[in-house]
Predict the 3D structure of the following.
Amino acid sequence: MGTIAEENDSAPWGEYVKLEEGRAADASDAESVGDDEIGTDRCRVWCRSLWWWIKLALIVLVVGSLVAVIVKWVGPFLMDKEVLPIIIWERKTFSKPVVALIVFGCLALLPSLLIPSAPSMWVGGMTFGYGYGFLLIVGGLTFGLSLPYFVGSFFTDKIHEYLDQYTKNAAAIKLAGEGDWFHQCRVVALIRVSPIPNAVYNYLSSATTVKYGPYLLGSLVGMVPEIFISIYTGILIRTLAEASSHDHPAMTPGQIVVNIIGLCTSVSATVICTIYAKRRLKQLQEQEQGLLQ
């Protein structure tokens, strides 16, 4: 009887020990599986990062090769046959004050007609350089941005219908009309750097509650990178045209490398600013939605 009791008393303890051992085994298996999953995730992240850098290197290589070919062969041919005659005709036909009036008028009127104003900026940079060219372009854009803003106020209902039905970035555009003066100015500046076409936004802004002051200041601040890149493009065109003419010496390899680096830097800066503006606008939209919820 004593032996049977002892066996009965020890049975639960044996089962308990087996249960604990089973739990420990399951925990160790779960930890090993978790470690394997973490290792797999890290490997995937590393592979994606490596593939991203490989694609970036390939893109830079291809773009650099294309730029080198354009600067070395295609550019001089076009400059000699097309661009240089236009520049010579412009200098012989118009004086600098007349060119300034033409550039100013184009920048003031073309945005209202939904026509890109970049060629006018190129001419301004080509003729007047960074200093006077920047002041001339900013002055012309002040009128070119203001006119669509006031004209669009007469078609508010139509613009609202367009925003609600067709525009993918309607939320970002409407966000510019919310908040205080600084918030509106900041959002407008980000919109100007984002992929939203400037000529289209000039009219769409009038359908929001954004005020004229933040709209104009934010637009000019947001377009500063585009203005400097356009001025640089105009100066580069003039340099290449002069180098391809017979009256000026050809560019040295050092000058070609500097121009290629400058062009690649300008393109890279444009892409980086566009990506940043797009992400920042998305963050502002998410913050706004969070406050509404």
